[in-house]
């Protein structure tokens, strides 16, 4: 349980549940898809539930299991129920990898896009376009996916216009009606001017190229030699040694998937593996070409991010197509135990934004709203307990430079953002909560004075307020 990311999307859901209107009452620099989607999912769940985060994490795992199951269905495999369950577990483990299990806009975009690919494969083209549009409503990078997927499905509609299915029309109509009802309910239309202003990125072409293309380029001579060697070997194997192709990818991908154990929990080589899979797609048979190209497109667009520049979510899906294409089905039986061991090893040794329980004491949170039942570092548990006590003591408070989990624990969302960094908070000068007491983290997870995560509101308020108290984890200003 970390102090910065875990409650991000959920804090916006809390604001919506409290009656706030997205963009008008709080800042959100992405399209509105994820907050509205998770508010709909969490509709029957109280934010005063002590086990809120456990429930939501179970829902995230269910969401990713659905993604994994849909990809397996795309393969049209002739396997029994037990094999389908095994394969779903394996693919889900690799999809989640070492990422925090939490609602996240990238996962939501992949969720809708996977449904879109599934419907394209089943020749439900109108529904596929609607679902690709839903993916675009989660994050700006998925605009690219929607444009290409939408054009492809329109071409297929025109090509097979005599075979338009009634069920496709019904499904797409229902999806549109439900989405319009939710958008009207949340008054998104009435805050459309704020939506345009907040979601218009100030990043230029250089920033886009840096986060979408340059990240796939080698950074030094060593990497250049590695890239050239891998690509040359791949082309050679395809032309002269096709039989050993699955073995090449099995060894290569194994090195990538175990790399976090030797690299502080971070993946190494994921970009060149993705490039290799993109090159390999040229040699795939025609019947999986469309599915493969859409998954590659989805993998690339999901990697366009200023915080998590990796296509790792989709890599195993594409590998799985390769293994089954080459009739290496039995590999999954060996991969399952290895993947489970790897999954828990990485998470145990390198927990998300936390030290390992091998090094520090972990305890189970009890008698606290939203996060009860979760094992976390004793430090983070005491940190959250202290933030709860401060809210009880001072009532109207704002946490700086960002503590969305504390906002959820207190079920109080006073400011216009739960991440008060400039890139996530374009309207900080209009924030009425600046009259509150402010609680400033003594050791924040982000550098708020300068750099990418700069928080101007934190710097401004520290200069214009007086410190009145100090605790183990926080300074209090009035």
Labels describing this entry:
478 residues, 19 helices, globular, 6 strands, mainly alpha, 56% helix
Provide a quick synopsis of the model.
With 478 residues, the protein is mainly alpha-helical. The chain is built from 19 helices and six strands. Strand 5 (467-470) and strand 6 (474-477) form a beta hairpin.
Q: Kindly state the number of beta strands.
A: 6
Biggest β-sheet description: 4 strands, mixed
Low-confidence stretches: none
Radius of gyration: 23 Å
What is the mean predicted local confidence, pLDDT? 89
User: Portion of residues in helices?
Assistant: 55-70%
Q: Beta-sheet strand percentage?
A: under 5%
Distance between the termini: 29 Å
Alpha plus pi helix count = 19
SSE string: HHHHHHHHHHHHHHHHEEHEHEHEE
Q: What does this protein look like?
A:
The structure is a single chain. The protein is built from 19 helices and 6 strands. The protein has helices at 8-17, 33-41, 52-74, 81-96, 105-121, 125-136, 142-159, 166-185, 192-199, 205-212, 221-240, 245-258, 270-280, 289-302, 312-325, 331-349, 378-394, 404-410, 456-464; strands spanning 362-364, 375-377, 397-400, 437-441, 467-470, 474-477. Strand 3, helix 18 and strand 4 (437-441) form a beta-alpha-beta unit. The chain starts with 7 loop residues before the first helix and ends with a strand. The relative contact order is 0.12.
List the helices and strands and how they pair.
Layout: H1 8-17, H2 33-41, H3 52-74, H4 81-96, H5 105-121, H6 125-136, H7 142-159, H8 166-185, H9 192-199, H10 205-212, H11 221-240, H12 245-258, H13 270-280, H14 289-302, H15 312-325, H16 331-349, E1 362-364, E2 375-377, H17 378-394, E3 397-400, H18 404-410, E4 437-441, H19 456-464, E5 467-470, E6 474-477
Parallel strand pairs: 3-4
Antiparallel strand pairs: 1-2, 4-6, 5-6
């Amino acid at each position: 349980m970390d102090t910065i990311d875990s409650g991000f999307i959920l804090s916006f859901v809390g604001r919506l549940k409290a009656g706030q209107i997205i963009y008008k009452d709080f800042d959100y620099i992405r399209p509105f898809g994820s907050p509205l989607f998770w508010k709909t999912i969490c509709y029957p769940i109280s934010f005063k539930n002590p086990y809120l985060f456990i429930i939501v994490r179970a829902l995230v795992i269910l969401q990713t299991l659905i993604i994994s199951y849909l990809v397996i269905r795309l393969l049209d495999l002739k396997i029994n129920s037990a094999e389908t369950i095994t394969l779903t577990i394996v693919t889900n483990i690799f999809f989640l990898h070492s990422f925090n299990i939490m609602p996240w806009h990238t996962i939501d975009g992949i969720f809708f896009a996977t449904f879109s690919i599934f419907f394209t494969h089943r020749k439900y083209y109108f529904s596929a376009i609607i679902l690709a549009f839903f993916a675009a409503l989660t994050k700006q990078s998925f605009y690219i996916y929607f444009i290409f997927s939408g054009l492809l499905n329109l071409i297929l509609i025109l090509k097979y216009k005599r075979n338009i299915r009634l069920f496709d029309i019904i499904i797409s109509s229902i999806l549109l009606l439900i989405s319009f009802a939710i958008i009207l309910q949340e008054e998104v239309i009435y805050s459309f001017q704020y939506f345009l202003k907040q979601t218009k990125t100030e990043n230029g072409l250089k920033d886009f190229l840096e986060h979408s293309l340059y990240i796939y380029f080698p950074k030094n001579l060593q990497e250049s030699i590695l890239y050239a060697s891998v690509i040359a070997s791949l082309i050679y194997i395809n032309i002269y040694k096709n039989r050993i192709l699955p073995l090449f990818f099995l060894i290569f991908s194994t090195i990538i998937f175990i790399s976090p154990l030797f690299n502080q929990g971070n993946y190494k080589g994921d970009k060149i593996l993705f490039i290799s899979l993109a090159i390999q797609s040229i040699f795939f048979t025609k019947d999986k070409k469309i599915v493969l190209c859409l998954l590659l497109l989805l993998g690339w667009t999901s990697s366009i991010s200023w915080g998590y520049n990796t296509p790792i979510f989709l890599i195993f899906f594409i590998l799985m197509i390769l293994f089954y294409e080459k009739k290496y089905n039995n590999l999954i039986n060996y991969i399952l135990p290895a993947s489970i061991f790897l999954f828990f090893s990485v998470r145990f040794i390198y927990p998300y934004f936390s030290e390992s329980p091998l090094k520090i004491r972990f305890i189970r949170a009890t008698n606290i709203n939203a996060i009860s039942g979760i094992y976390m570092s004793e430090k983070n548990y005491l940190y959250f307990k202290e933030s709860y006590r401060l809210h009880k003591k001072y009532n109207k408070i704002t946490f700086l430079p960002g503590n969305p989990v504390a906002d959820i624990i207190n079920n109080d969302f006073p400011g216009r953002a739960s991440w008060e960094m400039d890139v996530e908070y374009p309207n900080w000068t209009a924030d009425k909560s600046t009259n509150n007491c402010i609680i400033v983290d003594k050791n924040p997870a982000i550098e708020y004075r300068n750099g990418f995560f700069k928080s101007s509101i934190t710097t401004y308020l520290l200069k214009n307020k007086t410190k009145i108290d100090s605790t183990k984890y926080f300074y209090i200003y009035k």
